[in-house]
Amino acid sequence: MKTVRLSDTLTMDRIIHGHWRLLDWKMTKEELLRFIEEVMDLGITTVDTADIYGGFSCEEAFGEALKLKKGLREKLTIVTKCGIVFPCDNRPQFKTHHYDNSRKHILTSVDRSLKNFRTDYLDLLLIHRPSPFMDPAEVSEAFRELYQSGKVRNFGVSNYKPSQFELLSSYVEYPLVTNQVEISPLKLDVFQDGTMDSIMTRGLYPMAWSPLAGGELFTGKTERAINVRNMLLAIGEKHNEDRIDTLAYAFLLSHPGKILPILGSGKIERIKNAVDALDIRFSAEDWLSVYKASIGESLP
Predict the structure, then answer these.
(1) What is the third-level CATH fold of 3-182?
(2) Sorting pLDDT into bands at 50, 70 and 90, what band is 205?
(3) Closest-CA residue to 79 (of 251, 208, 199)
């Protein structure tokens, strides 16, 4: 598996396995363990999750599987997020959906995640979403405590615009190592709003959530979705490839910014499709052909 180095203590796979839909896979902890090992056999050892996934249940389910095999956690790079809260069965104390980036909430969330994973450290912690009410000095204080205690080795953010990234970066002692954002052949905002420029200027690599546009690449009936799908297939003919997901991943992986797509499938065949994308390289002409099909405009 190809990798990228985000810091002196963090190397991540070019393809990341996401656990947003983990509970939808309907696996026992034994089945989940076997699946994790199958994914690892394909070279993917970086896992992305968040405290809120599955109504605050996915982390614990993952931890139950990890517990079954001693030493497995040390072979994985675990990324999780915090900062979003909403009322649900597991969090009845929350009254409304809101963001909490306070020192107390960040510290409490990390302690809970460590307990869920049966570990004493996180490889990477992300603030899940930017809050208009965020106090960057308070976030920095929480990061400092977590780093100095050894509970978190690296920090980053998710869904941040360039100005928001710049604000938090100016306060934290430990560099933000990534920004996890939505990128797919049907979601290219990061290339138009300065987000990708900002990330590349800092020499960072973005994690890409929903790289298949939530399945719209397969089933979308809009003119735009059809045009993008047809363009991917046309380019795929050059590579003897007709799997839409493989081509979509190849589109992201081919970008010079070394995008790290997060695939959230519980089917090993889908994981293999993503890994196969590493062998396909889009030329600038082909990449921009997909880009034009997506934005519905010619280049200037």
Answers:
(1) TIM Barrel (3.20.20)
(2) very high
(3) 208
